[in-house]
Design brief:
This protein starts with 6 loop residues before the first strand and ends with a helix. It has a single domain (7-22, 32-138), classed as Roll (Bacterial Protein-export protein SecB). It is built from 2 helices and 4 strands; from the N terminus they run E-E-E-E-H-H. A 4-stranded antiparallel sheet has the order 1-4-3-2. The protein has helices at 86-114, 127-138; strands at residues 7-20, 35-46, 49-59, 68-79. The protein is of the alpha+beta class. Helix 1 (86-114) crosses helix 2 (127-138).
């Protein structure tokens, strides 16, 4: 069983990029399908500390109806004794992204709100389950 002494030591906003689609008509009510993606990265710092990064991207759609593009990367630095053991790495993959996701979600909403467009609020959902499903696709 994995240790439950997972500690978030700090989080860092590594990257923010935002580009408004100048041709998009925000006054027109329309359905928007955003081409969005999440990516997770884990980097060893030492035996007890690792960085877990979460990247969120909204990219251009082929039909040019995307109101904006965005890329946000945020990293949490976590401490967990022997985090690379089989049980603990699974624990890190599941819980660290769940801890970092609310910071990312808040940042995305703030960026769009401050861009003077309707706020884009990422849904509350189980990000750990999302990555579990993605990991199974890769196997």
């Amino acid at each position: 069983m994995a240790s439950t002494n997972l500690q978030l030591l700090k989080y860092t906003v590594n990257e923010i990029s935002f580009a408004l689609n100048e041709n998009y008509d925000f006054s027109k009510k329309q359905s928007i399908k955003l081409n969005q993606n999440f990516t997770r990265f884990i980097k060893k710092i030492n035996e007890d500390v690792c960085d877990v990064s979460l990247m969120f991207v909204i990219s251009d759609s082929n039909d040019c109806t995307t109101p904006f593009t965005m890329k946000v990367t945020i990293t949490g630095t976590f401490k967990l004794k022997d985090w690379e053991s089989k049980d603990n790495i699974d624990f890190i993959k599941t819980n660290a992204v769940a801890i970092v996701y609310p910071f990312l979600r808040s940042l995305v909403a703030t960026i769009t709100s401050n861009a003077n467009i309707p706020s884009y609020i990422l849904p509350v959902f189980n990000i750990a389950a999302y990555f579990e499903k993605e990991d199974k696709k890769d196997d």
